[in-house]
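Troubleshooting entry. Yesterday's outputs looked truncated, so today I'm pasting the complete records for two proteins to confirm everything comes through intact. If either block looks cut off, that's the bug. Protein one:
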Amino acid sequence: MRFGRLKIERSPKIMIIPMIDIIFFLLVFFMMSTLYMFEQNTIQVMLPQAAAGQTDQTSLVPITVTAPGKLVFKQEEISPELLIPRVQAELVRDPETAFLLRGDRQAEYGTVIRILDILKKTGIRKIAVATETGE
């Protein structure tokens, strides 16, 4: 005696709606988590104003002269004598590195010019001076 199959074979169905929900949730999660990964590490200085300022979106190595005349390379306070080796180390990594000189509005003009002269002596090809756009 032959019995029919008791188990009916069905092909599996792929549930696409829950999969879309999970993918959307992951997308939102990673978008929100990357917002908190970026941390603004800059020294607060009052920049001078310039009418013809331009914004450049390339990454620049910041060199800051604070109001009391202290020199900050990236996030580390250094003496002007240590500036040349630090800049040359950056140029060894990438000869096309651009540097951003940020001088506080209250800093002495001579101090900023002295730092600019030191930067020129190191052979930098790209130096930008940071200003605020003003009317």
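Protein two, checking that the full record survives here as well:
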Amino acid sequence: MSFTSPTTLQGRHATLEPLSMDHHDGLAAAVADGELWKLWYTHIPPPEQMRAEIARRLEVQATGDMLAFAIRRNDTGALCGMTTYMHIDAPNRRLEIGSTWTAASAQRSGINTECKLMLLTHAFETLDCIAVEFRTNFMNHQSRAAIARLGARQDGILRSHQLMDGGALRDTVVFSLIASEWPTTKRHLQYQLDR
């Protein structure tokens, strides 16, 4: 299977669907839940820029560098966020899971944990990845804690890594999981979801 073959991943709490323009209205509503674009330390589009963000992700996907997903809640059927495989390096069997956001009402619900479990399972068990990365802004303490709870290890901090909107410099914290760690991490994530 190609790293960028559109695929649907189904769990108990959420379903990851290949991103399309058909998701626009639902994602515009989801991002308004919590006004996520107001978080200064990350880039999440406001509702009026959602169409452009979907188009951007699909354009990057067409180059083979990304596989984008919309996140759908299974309990209500509503869309509640986006996530991607990005910086795909198929020859070296590596990718990053990122550009993820979830509506405020979906946070701390098990949806993010299950989405990461589905993405990691597909990456390690179907795509045969040797490593999966996660990156976040040093100032995004909620994201850093969530990545650490997954079982990923911090590899380092890329200082002054990116220029953000408004001119601030972003220090990027890099985490990863490697294939040999996957069985233990998978068991840990399944335990978290079953609690």
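Both blocks look complete. Sanity check on protein two: The helical segments are 24-32, 50-62, 111-126, 141-150, 182-194.
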